[in-house]
Specification:
Elements (H helix, E strand, L loop, with lengths): L2 E11 L5 E11 L3 E5 L6 H8 L7 E6 L2 E2 L4 H6 L1 E4 L11 H11 L6 H10 L15 H13 L5 E5 L7 H16 L3 E5 L3 H7 L2 E6 L2 E7 H8 L2 E7 L16 E2 L5 E6 L8 H10 L4 E8 L2 H13 L1
Parallel strand pairs: 3-8, 3-9, 6-7, 7-8
Antiparallel strand pairs: 1-2, 1-4, 4-5, 9-10, 11-13, 11-14, 12-13
Helix pairs in contact: 3-5
InterPro entries: AAA+_ATPase (IPR003593), ABC_transporter-like_ATP-bd (IPR003439), ABC_transporter-like_CS (IPR017871), ABC_transporter_ATP-binding (IPR050763), P-loop_NTPase (IPR027417)
Organism: Shimia litoralis
GO molecular function: ATP binding; ATP hydrolysis activity
Length: about 300
């Protein structure tokens, strides 16, 4: 896949001297879903705003399908649909008129068949004649997505798209994103919900303090940085870890019932066989053993902590 967005040494310094972006370089491939993860103030929204032409870069370049976002703003912006964090809709306008108006802002001719397709895809067709003030929060967020798609963009930015949405509706939104990708739309989303990135992203980017720490295929990142944990439930309460087990670097839960052992599956030896042998020699009786793999959230927290150190 060829890059549809090319970012080179992107920097943004606001009045007062705060540097929100510190030399970000990134290629985003056509047709992929890229999830940008980062704590509040990391630079996620500034990065999106700069790509979309809402704010100008202090240094560096951004090209959208070959169009520079500063010199060729109109051509670049025509390619992009943006769903911001804030829900901002005219309360007395109907859903269909809201979407028609957004399409018209980009100079597109009226196409009710296309808008019907979008509204059906977002489960909004039955609400097309409802005023936006009558909709639930989740439905309003869907209208925001419909507005962003109204002019047939090839790139869709979703800035915290499921904030404040219940779990069931969030999963429905993931299905919508998957359908959009299947239709050839490139999707970049920022999210605080790690499971969201884990569920739908092709690649994951971690940004913190205005710097892009890494961008990798999700599966590669989890394989490279993920660890496994062996959770050993004991028959009896243990006041402390026996000295004979200190070499295994175990953790004991506060209630004294569970030992936790972390190991790297990439190594030739995990140390599990020796651990279980030493546990038996210490006279400990096991009730249950479970293995767990690091989640994307564990990896994200580790990366941010390492960057802050």
């Amino acid at each position: 896949m060829s890059p549809i967005i090319e970012i080179r040494d992107l920097q943004k310094t606001y009045a007062g001297g705060f540097q929100a972006l510190k030399g970000v370089t990134l290629d985003i491939d056509a047709g992929e879903i890229l999830a940008l993860l980062g704590p509040n103030g990391a630079g996620k929204t500034t990065l999106i705003s700069t790509i979309c032409g809402i704010t100008n870069p202090s240094r560096g370049t951004v090209a959208v399908d070959g169009h520079d976002v500063v010199r060729s703003y109109r051509q670049a912006r025509q390619m992009i649909g943006l769903v911001p964090q804030e829900i901002n809709l005219e309360p007395f306008t109907t859903v269909i008129d809201t979407v028609r108006f957004s399409r018209g802002l980009f100079g597109k001719p009226r196409d009710d068949a296309y808008l019907e397709k979008i509204l059906r895809q977002l489960s909004l067709w039955d609400k097309r004649s409802a005023r936006t003030m009558e909709l639930s929060g989740g439905m309003k967020r869907r209208v925001m997505i419909a507005k962003a798609l109204s002019h047939e963009p090839r790139i869709l930015f979703l800035d915290e798209p499921t904030a404040g949405v219940d779990v069931e509706l969030r999963k429905e939104m993931w299905d919508v994103v998957a359908e959009l990708k299947a239709g050839g739309v490139t999707i970049i989303l920022t999210t605080h919900y790690i499971e969201e990135a884990e569920a739908i992203a092709d690649r994951v980017g971690v940004i913190n303090g205005g710097e892009l720490l890494l961008v990798e295929p999700k599966a590669d990142l989890m394989r490279r940085m993920g660890q496994k944990h062996l959770q050993i439930e004991l028959q009896d309460t243990l006041p402390e870890i026996p000295e004979s087990l200190n070499a295994h670097d175990l953790e004991l839960d506060p209630e004294g019932h569970i030992l936790r052992y972390t190991y790297d599956t990439r190594k030739e030896r995990t140390g599990i066989t020796g651990l279980l042998t030493d546990i038996a020699a210490a006279g400990l009786v096991l009730r249950d053993i479970q293995t767990q793999e690091s989640s994307l959230e564990d990896i994200f927290v580790t990366l941010v902590k390492e960057n802050a150190a």
